[in-house]
Write a structure and sequence with these properties.
60 residues; 2 helices
């Protein structure tokens, strides 16, 4: 199954509380931190809401 590699590239300081909560829900804790998540619609939606703070790569 395909997966998404999500890396935080910008800080959440000064951002909306909803964006901070989304980053924490994805498991991201700091700039440069990377997590691998399943490629599911729930995670795609979360990534889309914080797209300005993260980079995404599709992996197999």
């Amino acid at each position: 199954m395909a997966s998404l590699r999500v890396t935080q590239i910008r800080s959440d300081i000064g951002g909306k509380p909803q964006h901070r909560e989304t980053l924490r829900s994805l498991g991201l804790k700091r700039i440069g931190h990377t997590v691998v998540k399943e490629d599911r619609p729930e995670f795609r939606g979360m990534v889309r809401s914080v797209a300005h703070l993260v980079t995404v790569e599709e992996t197999d």
